[in-house]
Amino acid sequence: MVASAIIRRVPRELMGMAATEQAAAVRAGEVSSGELVEAALAAIDERNGEINAVVTLAAERARGEAEQVRAGDERPLAGVPIVIKDLTQLTEGIRTTFGTEASGDFVPRFDTGLVRKLREAGAIVVGKTSTPEFGIVPTTEPRRFGPTRNPWDTSRTSGGSSGGSAAAVAAGMVAFAHGSDGGGSIRIPASCCGLVGLKPSRGRISLAPLVPSPSANSGDGFLTWTVADTALGLDVGAGYEWGDMTWPPPPAGRFADAVDREPGRLRIGFTTAAPNGADVHPECVAAAEQAAKLLESLGHDVDEGAPDWGGDKFVDTFVQVWTAELGTSVHNLGSIVGHPLDLDQVEPLTREMAEAARAMTAVDALAALTRLRVYSRAVVSWWAGHDVLLTPTLAQPPLPLGSLDPDPGRPAMHVLTEKAGAFTPFTPPLNATGQPAISLPLHQSADGLPIGVQLVGPPSGEELLLSLAGQLEQAAPWAERRPQTASV
To answer: Which of 185, 215, 329, 376 is catalytic?
Structure first.
């Protein structure tokens, strides 16, 4: 079907609606799921050649599923087109590549638990979105698929590792996208693309039937325009699955209800100093400072202060644990895709990390994991005297594409230890502690680039964060602020 014909029949504004609005329109019979899916496919056809966010399309399957959705459907995501990050969440019948040439064209035979829940809630998967190889770096430029471009400025990164999902939403291809976050991989692209991105508490969304890594640093979530859409996604995706190793206590009610609830007067700590001592760009400092003033104006108690992050000791330990787990993932992936992975087919950074992991002893890996957990206990204790921590999400605005390429003649690992750390120092500590953290698009730079701020809640504190985020969204709305290149 020709994209221009679809656009004439279906208003492009459909993809400018929030997912909650799309589902409500389907429920009321104002638009059909088929029209929404065609609008999404048209937007992908129009914009993906430049943005390169969607790497596998499931058009005919999506059309068939949309035909089964009728007006009056009470499911929370009835008929809403969505995309799934092409990494750990497997999609039955739709290719999953993990961002690497080494996986071939593996097509899973089943949905992982979150994908199943999203489909049961009425969502229609229209495609899979790009990720850096194995989700390692905070920019989305895999060798297999090429760079994903930021819809706000196509010379810049959309962030990573959920950069494809963030770019798809920001470009108006869909209103709701899945992401995952092992060191900031939802919050980073949310900041780069001007979106809401929540990393839930450890174990809030199950990886079933897969199992988490030993550190359980990574978790799943969503990239959206609104806090309400993020809360709805959490309501759909959260919950214990048989055999889960860890799970937080259930919320008091629906996460969606928390968005409009007054958060009360909160004790909020505030810092713009990077945990690893990295320089922080003035625009990122300004974003956090403006947010602090806004929070004070809303009646909250804001004071300067932050946990003792541990500096270089944390960075070294985090990278060591990450390396051990990446090596394990590369080894285990062979049993999933049906053939051993050929390290000659992976990128230099992946190869170096896999080889370093093989050289580690079990004692080395477990000792590093123990150090990370000791560190986490010390950091979380700061919340005994505070409710929320406010920081910049990133230390820099969205970087030009290619900024995190390895330097010639140097080991590729310096991308993680130096380059990535200078860009994303504020996000990884919260993966280690397992706390919920959200990036909100409260600021734009002088040249119009999105700049996010990060709010970190106490353990299992998603409801508190969503209430506070909803209050900030009401006070300083951002949903109408879209890139000029978007398809809406």
So the answer is: 185
- In this structure, the strands spanning 267-270 and 388-392 are parallel
Which residue is catalytic, options 161, 201, 213, 439?
A: 161
185 in catalytic set: yes
**From 33, 85, 215, 487, the catalytic residue:** 85
> Where do we find the tokens 């810049």?
156
Could you tell me if 133 and 98 are in contact, meaning their C-beta atoms sit under 8 angstroms apart?
A: yes
State the pLDDT at residue 311. Answer: 87
CA gyration radius, the chain: 21
Burial class, 107, CB count within 10 angstroms (exposed 0-12 / middle 13-18 / buried 19+): middle
What tokens were used for 26? 């389907």
| The three-state (H, E, C) secondary structure of 183-233, written as one string | CCCCHHHHHHHCCEEEECCCCCECCCCCCCCCCCCCEEEEEECCHHHHHHH
Helix (H) or strand (E) holding 373: helix 362-380
Residues 350, 353, 355, 358, CA torsion sign: negative
Bridging pattern class, strands 219-224 and 301-304: unpaired
In contact, 158 and 193? CB cutoff 8 Å: yes
- Whole-model pTM: value is 0.96
HSE of 207, CA atoms in CB hemisphere, 13 A: 20
Torsion angle of alpha carbons 416, 421, 426, 429, nearest 10°? 50
DSSP per-residue letters across 418-440: IIIHHH-SSSHHHHHHT--EEEE
Instruction: Give the pair of three-digit tokens for residue 378.
Output: 């010390």
185's tokens: 């991989």
**Helix spans in 274-347 (H):** 282-297, 311-337
- Among 96, 122, 98, residue whose Cα is nearest residue 110: 96
Q: What is the DSSP letter of 400?
A: B
- Taking each helix axis from N to C end, the angle separating 19-27 and 227-237, rounded to the nearest 10 degrees, works out to 70
Question: What are the 10-residue block averages of pLDDT along the chain, 488 residues in total?
Answer: 35 86 97 97 97 98 98 98 98 98 96 98 98 98 98 98 98 98 98 98 96 95 98 98 94 98 98 97 98 98 96 94 96 90 94 97 97 97 98 98 97 95 98 98 97 98 98 96 73
d(CA 288, CA 299) in angstroms, rounded, equals 17
Q: What is the DSSP letter of 135?
A: G
For the chain, helix, strand, coil in percent to 5 are 40, 15, 45
Q: Can you tell me the distance from the alpha carbon of 468 to that of 258, in angstroms, rounded to the nearest whole number? A: 9
pLDDT given at position 4: 33
Given a contact cutoff of 8 angstroms between Cβ atoms, the answer to whether 85 and 178 are in contact is: yes
Cα gap 376→239, rounded to integer Å: 24
User: Does 103 qualify as catalytic in the annotation?
Assistant: no
Q: Given this model, what pLDDT does residue 10 score?
A: 42
